[in-house]
Specification:
homodimer; 568 residues; alpha+beta; five-stranded antiparallel β-sheet; 19 helices; 30% helix; 17% strand
């Protein structure tokens, strides 16, 4: 028996008193899961309940109970199938219900499948053998990386086999001249980040879930994240992929070339296809050189108009060293303070900005940042701020002296910018932005939206929704990647309610469509948003997507019920 | 009757004494073009010959005569078809053979079709009507932009209808905050470049053919070019496309969002598909802010090992302001000197480098470049060099004084870098690199290869091929985008010879495949390289490409004989 992979985020949540966690003491409480869960309570593969260890959130409902969804006529995993899998990946067939629970429930704890078996291949050949078998047997498969997705895309809806990439975690090669990394799909992003940093490069993407998410999952969901503004989309930085198709064919597009115009760029089909067209087993990705100087400024703004003006000023003055421009509203700050006990480094404001520079010259970058800050503080666009330049091991670095908040210099002279204005580490400033998701999860059930909008209308939906929901919501918050036109809109409530869902959807999608926005900027559609696809894509496009799915996965065994709308 | 679009490059070539040009005085010399040219010499759509105006290169052979290729069973354009087209695009149906000649022959003058009709739609609705009709009638269509392609992809092979985007040249919108440009496919790149520069942005791509090439063609061929190193692939910068499918369906993926993860990213199918899956009619593209400071250095290097070391040093010291790192060998310089009478700004060297910086601070960039130059000149990696900082209207700018070559300061002090070391405009330095293609074309018939290789092996193929060809070739030259691992390998000879072609191919492709390189880095496969696809892509991938083609264009009417290998 092997240990089941537990995402770091999950551990973090479960470690919090008042949360649900699996237990082996309550195995007797197994109950049938309805027609969608063949095998039922009596079989060896029965779904088991979680035990409630305190008065916190309720048990996660089965997806098939919460949402109107019908199981498709896939085969049911039999004892013969398990034996066949054991032959393919000996010792790496997980059937223990307790271990399976971690992979059946998504990180947000709002979607829950009842898979009876999880497979842990180590090689693409093993993945190929598994899929060839499943294809022949008409068994449905859910590929799973770090299970950190936010739209229910990485967990089964019914009893799909979970195909975990957790043991496919080897770096194949790294070219320290070109910065091209080739690795298996199950490498954890943070591990890769550390690995390439040791060789003076950085990964071109970074996101809050980095400690758990797999690079294969990042690519499969076309993850955006915190470095998108600087290094662009994975569609540009991913150079090659190895993918196993639904019938077990291994498609080798694992080149490591910056330019390759030979035929259709097949890897693009799989980037962002959420495991519905093939299972990504290896990735080749271009890593930019590690910046020699990184500065982070955390600023307070009196209104959203000032946020937008600060962004324009920032782009003009920081130019090529600007690497992040994130924003969060006052309610976000309240939640991270309340649930995570993080302190705000600046005085209370309507909006907060995190501006990061990454460059090759400490002096030049500091001068650029200093001039920018002088400009925005002097003009009143920004009312308060703090900066950090070094890594987060300590709260201060050798060149900075610890200063109390009251010692902050609000309007430093351009040339004397870094003389006495640093009290926070970069990590501490970034934590305020990166841990908002965690704070929201601790606030209650979260309805999450992730939309792209024209930047000038980016925040309008938040007050609109506050007015619409009134006291039905605990909090309606907005934050995100302003530089990319990407708003994360979140609504927290005591518990899931279909009535509130009906108030939110399709309202949020229609509002977004009215601005020609995207109803999923970077999270994907997964299970929860698949039927909203039509708000961002015209019927001809949806039809072509369905044709592509039929071409590549004619039996529909790969991550069913995800991404594409329910067909009539 | 409308004027046929003449690419600027073509005009340039034809203006050169000794080149072939069309004439109306020799129309009597019309001769039958064989079975692939239905209608023959006697019909109103007959192909006509070019007249030889001097003793220079021979007439362009028909592609069907030069290469072993069989016409597929498409219908032949009838008088009824012409009447139908006249109804769809009144006054924009070109049938005059002389005008058609320009669009039947490719820019390199090595491929020649015998199309009898060229259509010039103005809107995507017109394109849709044309394609719906052609699809029903089983008429083959070659989409054509600026006809600047280098692999015979933009001209008909037989009598395919030419669908020109030349009149689809309107800018739809430009957002001066986000830098997002939306325009029709037929906009000329240079025109767009000027347009966005007036609003303080730049196009994310630039290439030698900018004066003629259309943005739709750039996207359809996934053009790389001179800014790839800085702004990356069109796969990242193109935000949306409108495409008309083979059956006339208008596929609207013309969003203007930086992030959009709703369903499969269909536009990626059409980027780089060379007009074989659909006709791109509109493009939405992200333009970066215009750099405030641009510097160009032109350097001489004693060997390729020094070129590589200079690149490493450059990337480390110039960091985020590095925007181009191009190289050319000594034979390239000889050819631009001989055929274009351009002077070298530096002493004779084995290799020449063009290094460009683009940044937001004149002072910072100059200091970075100065320190880099001091380093590489001081260490002997570079033996001579010159720099330019301003636009090419004049040879000198207000801040620089004209200096004679002997006044160049070979090793300037870092801080005094720009005190007396500028004699060349940026345009003049760039011309040395950008006009190599033109110089090669004036040298004779050119066998062109465009390969991606591991950067440390980038130049090895050139001396290898020189030894292999010996006196069979006039010149074997290598140049290209070193920063992208992209070598342009060119062989000039007196005239095309099948024997030499057999010596070159598949040798060059096999050599490249041996390094796991790409046999087409940025030019595409077009007509000439389609059968070499297997050197860079495995059989499963080629098979999937053929399935995609069959899905999107079941009758195969879109740009037939291009990109995909001849099927048995």
């Amino acid at each position: 028996m092997v240990l089941c992979h537990v995402p770091r985020w999950s551990v973090r949540l479960w470690a919090c008193p008042g949360w649900w966690r699996p237990t082996s003491t309550l195995r007797a409480l197994v109950r049938p899961r309805g027609p969608g869960c063949p095998g039922g309570a009596s079989g060896p593969l029965a779904c088991r309940m979680f035990s409630k260890v305190s008065s916190c959130p309720p048990e996660v409902m089965l997806t098939q109970e919460r949402y109107p969804v019908q199981r498709l006529p896939f085969s049911v995993v039999s004892e013969e199938d398990l034996a066949a899998f054991e032959h393919m990946v000996p010792g790496r067939v997980v059937t223990d219900p307790e271990e399976l629970e971690v992979s059946n429930v998504d990180w947000l704890r709002t979607a829950r499948g009842c898979s009876k078996v999880l497979l842990r291949p180590r090689t693409s050949e093993e993945v190929s053998r598994i899929l060839r078998y499943c294809h022949e047997r008409n068994l449905a498969v859910t590929p799973q990386g770090g299970n950190t997705g936010l739209v229910g895309g990485s967990v089964p809806v019914f009893d799909e086999i979970i195909l975990s990439t957790a043991l496919m975690n080897q770096v194949t090669s790294f070219n320290s001249v070109s910065g091209i990394l080739t690795c298996q799909a199950g490498c954890v992003l943070e591990g890769l980040s550390r690995y390439v940093q040791e060789q003076d490069f950085v990964m071109p993407l970074d996101l809050g879930a980095k400690g758990s998410c797999h690079i294969g999952g990042n690519v499969a969901t076309n993850a955006g994240g915190l470095r998108f503004l600087r290094y662009g989309s994975l569609r540009g930085t991913v150079l090659g992929l190895e993918v196993v198709l639904a019938d077990g064919t291994v498609l080798d597009c694992l080149t490591s070339l910056r330019k390759d115009n030979t035929g259709y760029d097949l890897k693009q089909l799989f980037i962002g296809s959420e495991g519905t067209l093939g299972v990504i087993t290896a990735v080749s990705i271009l890593c930019p050189p590690r910046p020699k100087a990184v500065n982070v400024a955390f600023l307070g703004c009196p209104g959203f108009a000032e946020v937008l003006q600060t962004f324009s000023t920032c782009r003009g003055m920081l130019g090529e060293v600007l690497s992040a421009f994130e924003f969060m509203d006052a309610e976000c700050m309240q939640l991270v303070q309340q649930h995570l006990h993080l302190a705000s480094p600046v005085q209370e404001s309507a909006f907060y900005l995190l501006v990061e520079t990454s460059g090759s010259s400490t002096g030049h970058d500091a001068e650029k940042l200093g001039c920018f800050l002088e400009q925005v503080l002097g003009s009143g666009l920004v009312t308060d701020g703090t900066v950090a330049t070094d890594e987060s091991k300590a709260q201060v670095d050798a060149r900075a002296r610890l200063v109390m908040p009251e010692q902050r210099v609000p309007v430093p002279a351009c040339s004397r910018m870094f003389q006495g204005w640093r009290a926070w580490s970069r990590g501490a400033l970034w934590a305020l932005r990166e841990r908002i998701t965690e704070a929201l999860s601790r606030d209650g059930y979260v309805y999450k939206y992730d939309v792209s909008l024209p930047v000038e209308r980016l925040y309008d939906l938040v007050p609109d929704l506050r007015a619409r929901l009134g006291s039905q919501a605990r909090h309606v918050v907005g934050y995100g990647h302003l530089g990319d036109g990407n708003l994360h809109l979140n609504v927290t409530v005591d518990a899931f309610s279909t009535a509130l869902l009906d108030t939110l959807e399709p309202y949020v999608y229609a509002w977004t469509a009215g601005q020609r926005g995207s109803i999923s900027a970077e999270h994907g559609l997964g299970f929860r948003k698949r039927d909203a696809l039509g708000y961002s894509k015209p019927p001809h496009a949806v039809q072509l997507m369905q044709q592509l799915k039929a071409l590549l996965d004619p039996k529909g065994i790969l991550n069913p019920y995800k991404m594409l709308p329910t067909q009539a």
